[in-house]
UniProtKB/TrEMBL annotation:
<dbReference type="Pfam" id="PF00561">
    <property type="entry name" value="Abhydrolase_1"/>
</dbReference>
<dbReference type="GO" id="GO:0008233">
    <property type="term" value="F:peptidase activity"/>
</dbReference>
<protein>
    <submittedName>
        <fullName>Alpha/beta fold hydrolase</fullName>
    </submittedName>
</protein>
<keyword id="KW-0378">Hydrolase</keyword>
<feature type="domain" description="AB hydrolase-1">
    <location>
        <begin position="53"/>
        <end position="327"/>
    </location>
</feature>
<dbReference type="InterPro" id="IPR029058">
    <property type="entry name" value="AB_hydrolase_fold"/>
</dbReference>
<dbReference type="GO" id="GO:0006508">
    <property type="term" value="P:proteolysis"/>
</dbReference>
<comment type="similarity">
    <text>Belongs to the peptidase S33 family.</text>
</comment>
<dbReference type="GO" id="GO:0016020">
    <property type="term" value="C:membrane"/>
</dbReference>
<dbReference type="InterPro" id="IPR002410">
    <property type="entry name" value="Peptidase_S33"/>
</dbReference>
<dbReference type="InterPro" id="IPR050266">
    <property type="entry name" value="AB_hydrolase_sf"/>
</dbReference>
<dbReference type="InterPro" id="IPR000073">
    <property type="entry name" value="AB_hydrolase_1"/>
</dbReference>
Length: 342
């Protein structure tokens, strides 16, 4: 009898979890298969609008699955359809892609398959790229390749890592200045003295070991969020919610294989971005320490060149790298205004 009760409890738990999963997802989904990778695309929001926002997540090695549960996403989904694509080696993507496929060119090819699938599956909707950090770089690489930009109606480029050759040394300088401020305030002086002195050596940021050393310091600064103590609205799904949705714990670990094998430390797309003639909104956090404000100006000036008029730069004065949650209301207003005016 005891075993029967336990078995019944397990079955009931499974049924309840299965029922709860339905509450976490309303929409459509499909997989795109490319060069050994099987990549999910989850479509949520106002599909009837005929306007699809293709979210290009950061990283490399981040994911689009968790951002799809953020309140800012849910608010914008009232107006537009959002397509959340987990890139190869990232998020909930599957398959067994060879490390040799971890190139910018392959990611661009993958993205083109996603674009073509959305256009075919949803009867050629208006498609707008929304890329954050590495996602902004990927969007820039795609739009400057062949005639691909003809397939896209607009581009929202946020805190893009499009030129790491120039941008990473500026971020190292950010870490050095932050370290000095901590030393001056007597905060963990030994650690920050080590960080400051290392940054002062002007390390070669094209070397992986230097990048990972720098990144270990960067994550302890306010590079990502101007006020690390600010209360923000993150994904409305935690570890328990992950078990009650289509998510899995793989979303937290999948990118660990990709990151050390996808070397973009010499990435420099600034010259290529001159070819982009797609209407573009560049959004940047004034206090971004990952991709500093100088790189925001570089992105804006590079896209389409100096004579291109269909572009706009919006600076979020009270944000760092996560302005979409640091200044959520301003971000949403800016996003809607740009999309609705296309």
């Amino acid at each position: 009898m005891k075993n029967l009760i336990i078995s019944t409890s397990i079955i009931l738990s499974i049924v309840l979890v299965a029922c709860e999963k339905e509450n976490f997802f309303e929409g459509d989904h499909f997989f795109v298969r490319s060069a050994g990778a099987e990549m999910p695309v989850y479509v949520k929001g106002n599909i009837q609008s005929g306007i699809f926002i293709l979210f290009l997540h950061g990283g490399p090695g981040g994911n689009a699955s968790l951002p799809s549960f953020m309140p800012v996403s849910k608010e914008l989904e009232k107006d537009y359809a959002f397509a959340y694509w987990d890139q190869r080696g990232s998020g909930l993507s599957m398959g067994n892609p060879d490390a040799s496929s971890f190139t910018v060119e392959q990611f661009v090819d993958d993205l083109d398959l996603v674009v073509e699938t959305i256009k075919l599956r949803y009867h050629n909707p208006r498609l707008i790229f929304y890329g954050i950090s590495w996602g902004g770089a990927l969007g820039s690489a795609y739009l400057s390749t062949l005639n691909y930009q003809e397939k896209v109606a607009g581009f929202i480029c946020m805190d893009s890592g499009h030129n790491l050759m120039v941008g990473l040394p500026k971020s190292v300088e950010f870490v050095k200045e932050y370290a000095q401020k901590q030393i001056d305030q007597g905060i963990d002086a030994a650690y920050w003295t080590e960080a400051r002195d290392w940054c002062a050596t002007v390390p070669d940021m094209t070397k992986k070991e230097n990048y990972f050393k720098y990144d270990s310091y960067l994550t302890n600064t306010n590079a990502y969020r101007k006020d690390p103590n600010q209360e923000v609205q993150g994904p409305e799904v935690g570890a328990l919610g992950t078990m009650h949705s289509y998510l899995s714990l793989a979303v937290f670990f999948n990118g660990q294989y990709l990151v050390p094998r996808f070397n973009i430390l010499e990435l420099n797309l600034s010259a290529d971005m001159l070819r982009i003639k797609t209407p573009t909104l560049v959004i940047w956090g004034r206090n971004d320490g990952v991709n500093t404000i100088e790189m925001g100006y570089d992105a804006f000036n590079s896209i389409g060149g100096p004579d291109f008029q269909e572009k706009e730069l919006v600076i979020l004065e009270n944000s760092a790298h996560e302005g979409y949650i640091e200044e959520q209301e301003l971000f949403i207003r800016t996003f809607r205004r740009f999309v609705n005016n296309l």
